[in-house]
Design a protein that fits this description.
Length: 342
């Protein structure tokens, strides 16, 4: 049997249950690395691609982009890695390395041929996965491989804005929506030394969120509670996919403060220009992060002993895991353990 056969779970059409699937990946390309999957996180973005919510899915879809595993093959052009090394792969599998963003170290903004790990490419719901060597990130020995996977998507998504906006320990940061992304943001910001306010629609989480590191917890839909926060925040990280009262949130910003969008509400944001001009405020957004930022995140997480809160399912329980995520009961990230038969 060819060594290039990959065993996976795939959706054959939008909304279909995942089923066993195998394919021949062909010869490893010189710039690629092949990784035997040990663990793979389950993210809401996987669900969006499986269901073709963004209109970009290519079926069969093998999802999974929070991958932890062991290098089994190296292409001849791969640099700085070795067979047997434990590594991670996140949302991006390849970038061109020659466009201006790539040359400037912003490969996550590649305009010359970026390849998402799960769009037109087979992801980590499989026994093996391949990616360009720059996007194969060495895992520090002090990080637990079982829980590290969600750092490669959820983690970097909230970490990159901390770097981008030059957040320091003197700053007050609000996190809107405390789910898979939001809970990691709280843990990172706590280790960063910031004052943290968690905005959630479920105040039953208050004690849990304070145990994670939140200094304050506010009802995200309570207009009076939002008014009490006026002028406080240097940065608001919004992880929600629903429309909120954005004008009320802009009013909570300090001068030069920023609302940074990480979730994808379907409706346009209604924001008067005067609210931005008056306090030199801004609304920004970002995808995940560059290979350099990913390496920094994993090193920081290892140094500060930061790990996502996870629930573990076997890869053979993938459909049950997806249903658990749909139910809203996941606390707070789901990780799949690869258990393909040899």
């Amino acid at each position: 049997m060819s060594n290039n056969i990959i065993h996976a779970y795939a959706a054959m059409s939008a909304g279909a249950a995942l089923e066993p699937y195998q394919f021949d990946a062909g010869e490893l390309q010189p710039h690629q690395v092949e990784v035997k999957v040990e663990y793979c996180g389950l993210c809401h973005s996987d669900i969006s691609v499986l269901n073709n919510d963004w209109g970009s899915s290519v079926y069969p879809v093998v999802a999974g982009h929070e991958i932890i595993g062991i290098i089994t093959q190296l292409g001849g052009e791969a640099k700085g890695l070795k067979v047997g090394q434990r590594v991670g792969i996140g949302w991006t599998a390849e970038s061109c390395q020659y466009c201006d963003p790539c040359i400037s170290g912003q490969q996550v903004l590649c305009t010359g041929g970026q390849v998402a790990t799960i769009v037109g490419h087979a992801g980590g719901f499989a026994d093996k996965v391949r990616a360009g060597w720059q996007w194969v990130i060495p895992l520090p020995e002090d990080l637990d491989p079982e829980s590290a996977g969600p750092l490669l998507c959820g983690g970097i998504t909230v970490f990159d804005p901390i770097l981008k906006h030059q957040i320091q320990a003197i700053h007050h940061v609000g996190v809107i929506g405390i789910g898979g992304l939001g809970h990691i943001a709280i843990k990172l910001l706590k280790a960063w030394g910031c004052e943290i306010t968690a905005f959630t629609s479920n105040l039953d989480k208050t004690d849990e969120l304070k145990a994670m590191g939140a200094d304050h917890v506010v009802n995200s839909r309570d207009v009076a509670a939002l008014k009490a926060q006026r002028g406080k925040f240097d940065l608001l990280l919004s992880t929600v996919n629903v429309t909120l009262n954005w004008q009320a949130y802009l009013a909570t910003l300090a001068p030069n403060g920023t609302v940074h969008m990480l979730g994808l509400p379907l409706e346009p944001m209604q924001i008067p220009a005067g609210m931005l001009i008056g306090g030199a405020k801004s609304v920004t957004g970002s995808p995940t992060g560059s290979p350099a930022a990913l390496r920094q995140l994993l090193q920081f997480a290892a140094r500060k002993n930061i790990a996502p809160q996870i629930e573990v399912f076997s890869i053979s329980q993938l459909n049950q895991a997806i249903e658990h995520l749909h139910s809203g009961k996941a606390r707070y990230r789901i990780v799949l353990k690869a258990d393909f038969e040899a």
